[in-house]
Structure formats: C-alpha cells, structure tokens
Amino acid sequence: MKKPTTTFVSIVLAMMLGVVPASRALAQAAQHDHTPQAQQGAAAGGMKMGAGMMDEMAAKKKANTERIAALMAQVKSSTGDAKVAAMADVINVLLEERAAMGEHCATMMSMMKK
C-alpha cells in the first residue's frame, strides 16, 4: 500500500473535524424522546410512531455511537496507514448514518403528505 501523502491526510483530518462534532450532536439527539410529538400528531389526526419503532431506532443509534467510539479509539491509538484506514472506517460509518437518516426523513415526509 502506498504511503499516504500529507495533503491526503490533511484533507481526511479536515473532514473528520467537520464530521466528528456532528456525531456527538447526533449521539445527544438519540437521548431526546419524540414520543410526545408523535402522540400530539396522533391526537390531531396524524400518524403515531409505534413504541417498537422508537426502540429500534434508539438501539440502532446506540450501536452506531458505540461503533464510532470504538473506531475513534482505534484512530487515536494507530499510526501511519492503520490510522488512515481507521479514519476511513469512521467516515464510512458516519456516511451510513447520514444516508439512513435521509431515508428515514424522506419516509416520514412522504407519510406526512398523505
């Protein structure tokens, strides 16, 4: 494997600095309970999110948060190519989370339009 250039490592680190604080914010958002909003929507004739769906979302969020924490520990303890690979893994997990959230938001928006 080629040795990563300083420019490449700088770009990856810059991306990490922009993304990691967002993961912390998302981790805090997982603690927020949307049940009252879902119940208000049901009272107004809207849809209600089931408790099972909320539990599933919370479990996924907790698993991803733990996964990111483990990967970040690996980033901090690694050097060279291993560190770059670990950073790439963190970025991939964050992109997976973002894509899943986008799909979830699109689904919720389409349900609200009905």
Characteristic terms for this protein:
114 residues
Describe the protein's architecture and organization.
The protein has a domain at 50-114. It contains four helices and no strands. The chain has helices at residues 6-29, 35-43, 51-77, 80-113. The longest helix is centred in the last third of the chain and has 34 residues, at 80-113. The chain is elongated, with a radius of gyration of 18 Å.
Provide a compact summary of the structure:
The chain is mostly helical and 114 residues long.
Annotate the secondary structure layout.
Layout (H helix, E strand, L loop, with lengths): L5 H24 L5 H9 L7 H27 L2 H34 L1
Helix pairs in contact: 1-4, 3-4
Contiguous low-pLDDT stretches (5 residues minimum) are 38-46
Describe the oligomeric state of these chains in a short phrase.
single chain
The number of helical runs is: 4
Q: What would you report as the Rg, rounded to the nearest angstrom? A: 18 Å
